[in-house]
Structure formats: C-alpha cells, structure tokens
Amino acid sequence: MNSTNRAWNVVCAVAFIVTLAVPAGVLAQTTSEEQTVSEEQTASEEQTTSKGTSTQDGKAGVFRMGNSPSLRWGNQVRIDLHARVQADVSLQEESDAASDRLGWGNRRIGVDGVLFKRVEFQIEREFSDVEPWRDVFADVRMHRALRVRAGHFKVPFSMERTTSDFDLDFIARAASVTDISPGRETGIMLHGRGPRRFFEYELGVFRLAEPPLKPLVESGTDGAMLTAARFTFTPGTASIGIAFTGSRLPESLHGLSGHFDDDGLLSSEGFYVNGRRRRLGVEGRWTAGRLSIKGELLRQADSREGESVSNSDLSDLIVDGGYVSGAWRIVGSPRRSRRSVDVAARFERLGFHSTSQFDAPSLGSRADHIAPLRQDAWTFGGTWLVNRWVKVQVNAIRESFVDETGIRPEIPQARWRSLMRLQFSM
Amino acid sequence: MSDLHALSRVIRAACLLAFLLLLAAGSVGAQTASTLFDDRVLHTLQIAIHSRDWDQLRSTYLENDHYPADLTWNGIRVTNVGVRSRGRTTRSGVKPGLEIDFAHYSTGGQFLGLQALVLDNMLLDKSMIRERVAMAFLRRFGVPAPRESFATLFINGQYAGLYALVEEVDSGFAQRALGDANGALFEYRWLRPYYGEYLGDDLDLYRPLFEPRAREYDSVFNLYDPIRELFRAINDTPAASFRDAVGLRLDLAAMLRLVAADVLLAEADGIVSFAGMNNFYLHRHSTTQRHQFLPWDKDFALFQWNYQITDGTSQHALIRRALEDPELRSLYAGFLIEAVESATDAGWLEQEVQRAYEQIREAVLADPVKPYTNEEFEAEVAMVIDLARRRPAFVLSEVQRLFGGR
User: Which of A114, B310, B363, B375 has most Cβ atoms within 10 angstroms of its Cβ?
Assistant: First the structure.
C-alpha cells in the first residue's frame, strides 16, 4: 500500500473516530420532527422484544433479544449484534457429488447501532479471505437533509446493489447490477432527504482500493478517485431515481470473461481501455398492495484514449443492461411480515459493444466497432420467510447468449440453472 | 425544345458518370489474390499497429501471440487483422517474420479469399531470392506450391525491410491447388532426423510430427490412422506390390515430380534433405484418401550448383523403395529430365533469378534491418546466378550417368 493510500485510510479512520467521539450534548440538539431511521427501527424493534428480557429504559446495561441481540444504555446508545449465513445448493446437477453442489453464500458477523441519537455506525466482517471487511462506517446526522457518512461502504449506485443481499427477491442480483455497479469503497458521502422522503440525495467521493481494471503498466501512482451521485424521488407508492459515477481508468485490457462468461469460452476476448469510466443508472419501483414491480437501466462507458492501431482514440466501450422484475406476496402481510411467501419473475439483459458501428465488427482488442454480444436471462423464483430468522429461496434461471454478428467461433449454449438458498439472518 | 436538350445532356452526363463509376468499381473489384502474388510487381504493404504492440511483438518474438493491426495494400485497407511473429529458425526480434491472420478476430474473415498471409523475413537467405524463385519453378513445373511475391513492408510508416509474401498452405490453398478444401492437412514438424520409417502402432508417435492444419477437431484415429498405415505400407509392403499398395495411400507420381524439382533446385532441406524429411505439408484428399506432399520453405534451395542428385535418397525409406520399382524409377528419371528442360527453356531459371534480383535490389540495399551487409547480398546473388547457369547441365549429366537416359 503506498503512502497516499495509507493517508487516505488514516483520514477515514480519523473521521470515523471523530464521529464516534462527537459529544452527545452537541448532537442531542434535535427537534422532535427529526426522527432518524434508527429511531424508527428502534421503536419497531421495541415492539418485538421478547418477553422476559430485562428492560429498563434510561439506565445502562440493558440487554434485549429482538430480531438480534441488542445492548442499550437508555435512549443514548444502541448496539445490535448480527450474524448471517447463506448456504446455496445447485439443484440441477444431480450427477455431481453433494459437496460439489453445495456452496456457501455470505457468512457474516457484525454490529451496528446508534450513539447519542445522532451517530449511526456499522461494522461487518465476512468469513472470507477476499475483502473480509464489508461495511465499516459511521454516519452522522446534522439534519435530516444533511448527513455525513465516512468509512467503507457501498457506493451509491443502483437500487438493487444498495439493497442488502439478505433482502433480495432473488438469490442473485441481476447480472447487469453485479457487473456494472461499483461495490464497497472507502470514502465520504453527504446524503439526506426532504420531508416525507419525497426526495433523497447521496453525493460521495471515494478512493478506490485498487484500479477498476488491472493496469497494463503498474505506475505506482495513486489509485483512482471515484465520484458518485444518486437522486431518488418517491411520489406516493412509486419511486424513481438516477445515479452517476465517474472515475479515471488506467490503460487496461477489458475482457468479456468475468462479465458474463462463467465458462471461460469468451476469455480470449479482450479490449483495451484507457481514460475515464462513466456510469449512468436509472431506477424505478412501484408497489401496489401485494404486487411490487421494479427495474433498472444501467450503462458503463469506458473511453479508449490512444488505443487504436495508429495510437488515436477509439470509440467508447459500452457495457449496458438492466432488468425488470415483479414480485407477488401470496402469503403474509403486504408490508413487513415475519412469515411470508412471495413469488417473483425477472427478465434481465447485459450487453457489450462499442459506440462506433461504422466499419466491420470485430473481436480485435483495438477494434473501433466491437462485435456486440449480449446475455438475456429469465429468472423465476419463490421466497419463503419461515420466521424472522430463516428464509428459503428457490430460483430457476434460463440464460442465453446473442451474437448478432455471428463472428464468434463459439458462444455458450442457452441453459437452465436452478438454485436453492437457505439463509439464516439474525 | 430547349428543355429536351437540357434533359438529354443531363442523361448523357449521368450515363458517363455511371460508366466511370463502373470502371472505378471494376478496378477495385479486380484486386484478387493473384494480383497480390503477382511476382512481376514489387508490392508495398503498410501495417498500422499500436506502437506498444509492435514493441511487444518484437521483444517476445518467440511467442505466437496475436496483435491487432490494419493492413493496407494497393489502396485497400483491411482492419483488425491479427499479426504474430512466425518462423522456426528464422524468428527475429529485429526483423520478425510475420503471419497476418484475417480470421483471428472474426470467424470467416478473409482478404482476397485468403484466410492468412505469410510475410517471410528471408533471414537465412542472404540473396533473398531463393524462396521466391524456387516456388515459381515448382509451380511452373506443375507442383502445387504456394504463390509468392516480394513486398516492401512499412510499419507505422517506417520502412521495415523487404519481405516475401507467401501464400499460406491451408484449406483455401488446398481448394485452389488441389480442388479439395475438405481434406485433412498436416504441417510436418522437424523434431529429429526422420527418414519415413514405420514408427509403430501407437498413433501418438505420429502426432508430434504431423500437426493438423485442417479438420483439427477430427478424432485422433481419423487424423492419424491413415498416416500410420501409409508409413506401414511404405516400409512393410513387398517390392512387387509396393507401387500398388503405397499408390493407394500416396500420389507417387506427384511425390516423384516434387522430388525431381527439388533435385533441380539443389534443395538440401526438402522432403529429401540432409537430415531426414523437412519443410512440407501433407494433404489427404477427402474422397480418395490419398496423400500428397506439398512443398514449403525453400530458403535452402539453389545453394550449390553441384549438389549431388542422390544425396539423402539411400536413407529415405520412401524414395529408396520407390526407386527400386523399375516403373517408378523410370518415371522419376523422366521427371528429372523434364525439370532440366523446364529450367532451361528460354533460359528460364537464369532469367528468373536475374529478374528477381533486379526487382528487389534497391529495396534490399535500403533494408535497414536485414542481418547481413549489402556486399554479402551481392555476393550471394552472384552465386545463385552462377548456379542457375550451371545446375541444369549438371543434373542432366548426372541423370544420364545414373539412369542411362530416359
């Protein structure tokens, strides 16, 4: 890690500590109407506190057992412990050994809570060697319209990406969401909302832990910065939003493998990129009783400065796609429910092409007109919330590839996959 | 009335314009692979390749990695071709031999009907004319051989030396030269001196020697069982039935014609070489299942005017046994005399060498990356010209001495 990386992490750590150390008296200067989400959640959970636990509001050392174990010191401090485990089973490969068909999803443990009514925090760790630290951040509320979040957390882009893995309608996010939207990064974000949540905004600056793609030449210079903005409007039961990100992109080879080619059949395809990466996302959601419909359109444009065979610029390399999904609650309350059964369906698309379509399409790594390829997928699924902790999901997925130019020697055949997930969340 | 005149003028002008456009289109459309391999012309090839890719190709010239490039010839620009370093003993990071693959980034991609084009750096031939002249003689003599021409190559606008443009031996070549694009095709890999002996039953013994260049996805048995049986027949068939048994699996006449041409050309590194078999492709016809040898890489041809015409034949199982058959021996002697006649007809060989030299001389002298001096080039050409004068008579005298005339 270079010195600037370290400095950046120190800044975020200091920000985190400062936010934790903000005097309660200062932060407690609130008006009655400025109730935080945390307070709402606290109130909600207080209603579900198990009988027999010791509760003594306003005094220290109170332990509660709601959806998860919780420690509270009056109404100034709340700390909740979470543990989450997902186990996935591939259903259709019956000839494979059981051990090959079984895999772990997320296995996480973490704490979150609220300090002095003004500071929310979350620390979550995955039982994994790869990026074990998930959310590690503090969030300070100055006003409902102005909050500051610092630490390591999800970049505000894509409705589905910023939804917890444990609250999704399907076992996996749409491929376009996973592929195009950024994940967690270290940064600072201003966010807030207007009255009745009609309008929400998130504006963040992040330092990427590593470049978006492996650079061709390790320059040893600073990692890229990423700026992100997301705006959401919620008129009634509908919600629409738009989001942007922008970042530098080192000279890299951008391959199809890793996007939607699990089998590696397209691994030979790689395209040089260099310059900037810009993302645009549009999202919408509508809920009516037991029915909810949502969708997103996402687009990532990578510039290719100086990457033609004659060292001039090439047209942008575009990865775009989206999904539309609908879910119907057939058992349980339309709102939050401890026990419920939902059925859902989703159509999604993820594509790969260039903005230029003048000359003949090609798979050349410096082609101005990249031969387009896209993946379409249908997912049908059911979700059974057995109780407040246990959830069972079953998905059947049909994926197909479309190479309109027909110049690829081989593309994966359309196929069905089926998965089951057992999830414990506390 | 004046309106009618005006309309008439407009129609005439339109007709003239259409005619001119048709002529222009015709001239573009007339560009064929034959034009590219027209050896009466010193061609110019332009390759645009990203500067880092070119540096990388040269620094890793022993690898076969492809790099995207644009190729321009005769005003025709082909985008997104794949370029790689090529060659066995001629690989170079200074003047790399190149293969242009028109289908590498696009299945079915081609240029003038070619899937690929070889740019031979002629690194081992100080005269730079042996390969092109030898292939021209083979074709003149009726041997299916790659077409070749000379070209000056410019990389990103910089002169990168003189190259020979060589037609790739692939299914397209097989269709043009043999009328069979669906046959199996193998490139022979020289691993050790191999004289055509039977290697045994195990097909894996033949696989390293014969690398498939067509029908690559056929089963190992389908690809290599006929080759194993060919060499079994060559070695194990009794002399009395040799011609019939081997003739079922190999075009013996075509083989002898090729060997005779190689003898005339003093080819020391062909299917009868100083170290076993080398520099050939093996084609198996899709219907007759008969094999045929196809020549490749003639940079060791025309190297010594008095190179013995029997060198290598006694060790070579196929040639030795073929020449034990009286009918095949007579056929071979006839081919040798025919080769001499073809080379001397109107002084063809000497004139062809002289013409090639005059065509490339300025380009060679200006070649900044050739691995020899201008004086070495001139001296080597003089030696080849001398060979062209003396070799036919020498071969003829040897044929008469060894075969007693036709």
Answer: A114
